Amino acid sequence: MKETAKLFKALSDPNRLRILKMLEKRTLCVCEITDVLNLATSTVSKHLSILKESELIVEEKNGKWVDYSLNTTTENKRVKEFLNNLDLWIVDEQIVKIDYIAACCVDRNLVCCK
Fold first, then answer.
1. Greatest CA separation found in the chain?
2. CATH number for the domain harbouring residue 11
3. Between β-strands 57-62 and 28-29, what pairing exists: parallel, antiparallel or unpaired?
4. Which residue has the higher pLDDT, 54 or 2?
């Protein structure tokens, strides 16, 4: 029950859902996610921590950046099922459509230097 509660907690916040939808498009670093969401880095880091704890995302060191992506290799059946169907969820939300465009255009080389 504890693992299921973690998953529901992770999915209970609109910004975390927005992050998942952006990561559906491409791998992003915290600076890029922060830029798209227009939130404080500490807030985005907390969201990413909750998503990692629930096994929805993974991180990988890439030079000076840490890249975040959907966890496509999870053994957790509930997480795997959710991620396999993520393309069906909240696709008609205007903010998700805007985030998709922004996530495709954001450049870590520009936003991480601000």
1. 43
2. 1.10.10.10
3. unpaired
4. 54
